[in-house]
What does this fold into?
Amino acid sequence: MTESKVISFEALRVACKNCSLATLCLPMGLTTDDVERLDDIVKRARPLHRGDHVFRNGERFHSLYVVKTGSVKTYAPSTEGGEHVLGFHLPGELIGLDAIEKEVHVCSATVLETSAICEVPFSRLVALSGRIPSLQHHIYRLLSKEIGHDTEMLLLLGKKSAEERLAAFLLSMSKRLHKRGLSPTDFYLSMSRHEIGNYLGLAVETVSRLFTRFQDEGLLKVDRKHVELLDLEAMEALVARAPVGDRRQRMS
Amino acid sequence: MTESKVISFEALRVACKNCSLATLCLPMGLTTDDVERLDDIVKRARPLHRGDHVFRNGERFHSLYVVKTGSVKTYAPSTEGGEHVLGFHLPGELIGLDAIEKEVHVCSATVLETSAICEVPFSRLVALSGRIPSLQHHIYRLLSKEIGHDTEMLLLLGKKSAEERLAAFLLSMSKRLHKRGLSPTDFYLSMSRHEIGNYLGLAVETVSRLFTRFQDEGLLKVDRKHVELLDLEAMEALVARAPVGDRRQRMS
DNA sequence: CGAGTAGTTGACGATTGTCAAGATGGGTGG
DNA sequence: CCACCCATCTTGACAATCGTCAACTACTCG
It folds into this structure.
């Protein structure tokens, strides 16, 4: 909690306008002028360490958060210590959108590795969006995008086999990392097998077995957290194939 | 497509301010004045018949739609005729929110029974929301609510057994119908077993078997589409119980 | 009244979860 | 710097839920 000169100085430098994530994050599509006004309300990146919480289920909602560096896991704690992993979030991704309705956080967010998080006070963002139509519209789009993403997950969990789920997960990571300038075929997973399984609705053991099977089939090479995708096309083919039980079904 | 005097007259009468759904729908929390301005942009309810589409996957996005009477199914058509049912929508519920991002409808919406649908041109809604802060905030909340709902479904599909899924579905219908002034324990389902199964990620046969099992256990009485819930408490207990495979799991 | 669709029920099998044991590796303290 | 320890991961054997296939019934609609 020490707030040295160095960190403050750093915080000034990581203004949105200088941020490499500008095209992925909130400022997307804003004018230089508007981005500066956005900068005024965004609180400096907070450095958090593995296991630290960005917010917790039940806390009053004040701000949205953007991952600046590192990665974040959102999850819904269930009774008796269990949890349901809702998502993994990479730099530029916005979290906390589900809390707007009830003004209370309905899930928790914890960082998977040392991470920097930007805080965007929501009431100030709303006020600003009232004066900047393009920002207002952009927020609508971001919320809509989140809905679209959830919809995809619904299909994944409702209709796809274990194999297809893991392949879809790996491809999703691949694409998102690629957008951030990293290798789409060679990366480190910041989450555990357990978390992956929980997220995909599978047992840890199933995830583990699938990793080895994929490796045996030459789709990838895996060593602990390190994954190398060797055949992106084959994986795409895996996830694109018709859902389980999709024979001729007329339900008019 | 005939547009008789009678229908026009009717359309005038079903203005938002007279609508019994006002507390469920967009106008929630607006002043009388603001509701009248909203009325100006809402196009009259369109009467549609079973199987008619409100919009289709791939169409350009222009409007949001509100179910006024009847019920609507949203679904994502998959390749080769299959489909993935995304949701069932009752009066007062808003559909099309997932299309805002790409400005293209990413799912299709079809009515399950004769239904009236209100059309809300989105660009006009956005313009209006720019002038009415409470409307703008309300739209944020609606979008956030949709995310919250999807999140619940994610948990249902990812962690719950067939039994729990069907119980949760029936209770959801029960609560939503109750909010609309109908019986929470005695209602008709407007969707087929096939559609229920598809929505819940289950085979038709499983849904059918569960209905009979629930009936045998005295939880409900079912005759085709007609359902009578006999023991709401027991059903609540069913869905509230800890998810599948939720033993002591530490995943720090 | 006939035909086709929706729903139900039974038998069977496959995918995936559960339980259990062992392997691997990172972190910590001596 | 090494060794131990514990969490994570892997692998195997088994079980259960749920999907698939098939046959049959019962509506509904023309």
Q: What stands out?
A: Residues 161-162, 202-203, 205-206, 209, 224, 250, 252 of chain B lie near DNA strand D (CB under 10 Å from a C1').
